[in-house]
Amino acid sequence: MKHLRRALLLCLVTTAPLAVAAREATPGQDAVASAHALATAAGHTVLAAGGNAFDAAIAVAAALAVVEPYSSGIGGGGFFLVHDARNQHDGMVDARETAPAAATATMFLDADGKVAPARSLNGALAAGIPGLPAGLVYVSKHYARLPLAQDLAPAIALANQGFAVSEHYAIMAGFRAPAFKQDSDAARIFLRDGKVPPLGTVLTQPDLARTLTAIAEHGNQGFYGGDIARRLVAGARADGGIWSAQDLTGYRVKERAPLVGHYQGIRVVSAAPPSSGGTVLLEALNILENFKLGELNKVDRMHVVIEAMRFAYRDRADYLGDPDYVEMPIAHLIDKTYARELSAKIDINKATPSANLPPVTTDPNHHTTHLSVMDSEGNRVAATLSVNYPFGAASVPAGTGVLLNNEMDDFATSPLTPNAYGLVGGSANAVAAGRRPLSSMTPTFLESAERIGVLGTPGGSRIISMVLLGVLEFADGGDPEKMVSAPRYHHQYLPDQVEYEAGGLDAATQAALIAKGHKLNESKRRYGNMHAITWERATGVVKAASDPRGEGKAEVWTPAAK
Ligand code: DON
Asked: What is the distance between the alpha carbons of residues 50 and 253, in angstroms, rounded to a whole number?
């Protein structure tokens, strides 16, 4: 298949010189920005071996599954936003987890009909059917240049040889240590004697290396069928889960059309449902286009951005879910006329109480990771991948090394009951067999006449507001360093409050926002872990940056001739 496509491409090159001449310039440099230096190095290895951005994304994602197990993994899922420079095709590879067939709308309620939050967070009942293995296989088959086994090799080596416990690992493991059952595979792999391993401890994952090798050798069948699948089902059921062999064999990746909008001349390409990311991002940007942000003072600008977040997150709660099961008015939500109507409701002097917005209809910190890649030919990947909570469900089916996600908590486990991120939802995001839970992951491409941008971040419900602030930085001419490091603030409709980063707002700004009627809540920590790349078309300069809040690494290389 890959060879056929390459042959076809060669044909095009030899028979259609005019089309080739019209093709846009290419960056000429490769760039990777990810949450871990070892994962960025894995990307470099396959790029240096002649791989393209898609090979690098596979290598980085698989390596993150090993060295950043609290954020994403083979037992989780996510979205790969892809741009294929050969034909300018934009796609969204949806490798989101699905609810097992035995899932029901009441599975996370107790005997009194109240949400039992621990059930959708800890243990295998919280786990959706993983999508990442199928996502890697799909990207390899349809976009990459090297064999899947070559792209997975660095991750397999890291799983066998181990990685050193860092300060960040220790914080995450400490947060989730109580959820690990002491005699479990999960505790054996990620803790030492039930405690956070000392800094520098080298953690090897031989079972995970075997599972990754099975995927490398047999593709989907290596994970969703055969011995690994049998162990996954047995292990999940032994830990209170409801998985079946058919759930695994029935899992399918879907390539969907990304959402596309425009903000001040920038083409914005972002995640379509079952992520809410692109919809909320575009709705908020459309609202903001009705204000001259550049002419507003700092407080008024923040105020309208907060109001735009409020309106757009409200619609998320009301309408969004899995597009294969729910009808959604996406075209309306990202329509400029609708945004103009909403912007007319924003009072520049006063916060709109969320309670005054139409209520959400109910009848019929955290972890995740993001990687940004661009190659010398102009191919791009923005992938946000997750196991949801740090270390997901804290459960590893025996002998697989696969840490299960707890993505089921992203469903509205009961109408209007906040989930782990305080998000509410209605019937559009109710638990049901086979459905994908609504996500906030927002991998995004930005394209202006001058520059191309690739960005995204983890952060639960705050992902979308972080990407929104990142887009506004880009629109103001900010480089990746600015996009990833700017102070953050967030409003998600409910709770009706502005959350801002520790130390992120000076006293005068706080007072001015309070005077407009906003409730403020300083978060205990700085949040997010954004990774961004830009390419300036005119100068050819490629820049990449990883969020100073994390331990990631961004690099730009000039490749040897391929
Ligand atoms: O898909 C989602 O929206 C969540 N599972 C993402 C979780 C997340 O970003 C946690 N990170 N801090």
From this structure: 26
Query: Nearest C-alpha to atom 6 of ligand 1 is from which residue?
Result: 460
Asked whether residue 217 falls in the same domain as residue 292, the answer is no
218 and 73 co-located in one domain: yes
Looking at the fold, whether 186 and 300 belong to one and the same domain comes out as: no
With respect to residue 562, please indicate whether it lies within any of the assigned structural domains.
no
Nearest to 241 by CA among 407, 424, 414: 407
As to burial, measured by CB atoms within 10 angstroms (0-12 exposed, 13-18 middle, 19+ buried), residue 105 is: middle
- Ligand 1 proximity of 276 Cβ (cutoff 6 Å): no
Instruction: Kindly state the tokens that stand for 272.
Output: 């379509």
Please name the residue whose Cα sits nearest to atom 11 of ligand 1: 367
CATH number at residue 552: 1.10.246.130
pTM exceeds cut of 0.90: yes
Instruction: Give the tokens for residue 227.
Output: 């011995």
Residue 466 and residue 416 in one domain = no
- 12 C-alpha to center of ligand 1: Å? 42
Question: Residue 453's domain spans which residues?
Answer: 256-357+442-557
Residues 543 and 417 in one domain: no
Of 40, 98, 211, 368, the catalytic one is: 368
Ligand 1 centroid – CA 426 distance (Å): 19
Q: Is residue 3 part of a domain?
A: no
Count how many domains the chain has.
2
User: Looking at the domain assignment, is residue 9 inside a domain?
Assistant: no
Instruction: Render pLDDT for 279-333 as a digit per residue (tens, 0 to 9).
Output: 999 999 999 999 999 999 999 999 999 999 999 999 999 999 999 999 999 999 9
Alpha helices in 184-297 (DSSP H): 185-190, 206-218, 220-224, 226-238, 245-249, 277-288
Q: Is 441 in the pocket of ligand 1 (CB under 6 A)?
A: yes
Is 368 a known active-site residue? yes
Tell me the CB-side half-sphere exposure of residue 314, using CA atoms within 13 A: 18
In contact, 153 and 406? CB cutoff 8 Å: no
Is the CA virtual torsion 152, 91, 538, 533 positive or negative?
A: negative
Say if residue 163 is in the same domain as residue 242. Answer: yes
pLDDT tens digits for range 238-268:
999 999 999 999 999 999 999 999 999 999 9
Query: Residue whose CA is closest, atom 10 of ligand 1?
Result: 367
Residues 114 and 180 in one domain: yes
What amino acid occupies position 532?
Answer: A
